[in-house]
Amino acid sequence: MNITIIGTGYVGLVTGACFSEVGHNVICVDCDEKKVELLQGGGIPIYEPGLEELVERNVAAGRLSFTSSTAEGVEKSDVIFIAVPTPPLDDGAVDLSFIERVAREIADCMTSYKIIVDKSTVPVKTGEKVADTIKRYCQADCDFDVISNPEFLREGFAVEDLMNPDRVVIGTTSDRPNEAMQKIYKPFNAPVIFTDINSAELIKHAANSFLAMKISYINAVAAICEASGANVEEVANGIGMDDRIGRRFLNASLGFGGSCFPKDLSAFIRISDELGYDFGLLKEVQKINASQMNRFVKKITDTLWILKGKTIGVLGLAFKQNTDDVRMSPAVDICQRLLKEGAFLRVYDPKAMDKAKEVLPDDGVLYIDKMDDVSKGCDALVIATEWPQFKELNLVKAKEAMTAPIIFDGRNLFDPVSVEQLGFTYKSIGR
Ligand code: UGA
Asked: Per residue in 162-183, pLDDT tens?
């Protein structure tokens, strides 16, 4: 198939690379000319395991190319995916101006039948508006179909998730695009579900909100575990073995972050409000998420008392492992709170230091190149991202290098008994 993807962010670029990997011809379009130049020169603007090799291989095979011209992308392909950002507005609503602009651009250069596929996460009923917009601005009198195909990939596992999807959702009101969509997804061997457009759009918000709810649920259980002396991991294992519940997304933490869950949850609450339903359950999910970070900071201040002038080592800045993304990162949030209290930070992240430098203040933060050097002179260590390599931290050496052996583990990476046996004061989540 000849496919164009508009937008080369996490979703667009990884989708383009994976579609070309299974043999389709893909043109990736982005309005950011610098980014296009970088991609054309073999550079990758984001860190995502396996992506660089995939892009390199498919560019070399002539199946993947990059351009800043929407007209070129629209002309050369029958199927056009929209994968542009849908960022949150201050009031929790979704900014759909990028989607609207792309819809007009596509309309402007369409001269024959096209299938326009929305892959960006959008509020229910957006497909209808995209179709109206294209109809209004289309110069030529040509047919088109707008369909919804939400993406479920996780950052840090994007290539793996895209190559092995557990389901593909296609929302359409006409049969005409079905054959093309089936052809595109056939090589992925995943179950394909056809729905109407509104349902497909809703599936995405409902799925992300459900997963966020699962995390807030276990975080609330973690608070009860702390108050009662139970262990949240044992509880999560015990309830997760019930197939109806499942163990995944039951890891107690500092709360969920990233560019998706906080934004999609707010959007879903807002959409529900507009449709006349007060989704109080999801408001509580947000509340628990905010209180989780407050509880963690309180653990730090309860132990260290005054933070002003203290040196705190922070392991992890990305919003989760395997990514350099710091958007809505709980790790960055904790750094900002500690800095506000007057602490001095020694920070390390395997991939996210450059991006963190753009959002953290210059004063009071020292970026350390090696994980094992972070502890030097620290009054405490905070573990803020669950990078697996943090488990390899040499705790004996860390203790020697620290002013006081105290660890606040926001990701439950260590076994409390063994860390305490080494002489540390160790506080984690829900145990
Ligand atoms: C999420 C969804 O998992 C994807 O299916 C979806 O496609 C994506 O949003 C999106 O809408 O684009 P992502 O934001 O990349 O993916 O990251 P997740 O792995 O879902 O983690 C989100 C947050 O929840 C992270 O801060 C993570 O640390 C936290 N989390 C996750 C927990 O605190 N506990 C868990 O058990 C799992």
From this structure: 999 999 999 998 999 999 999 9
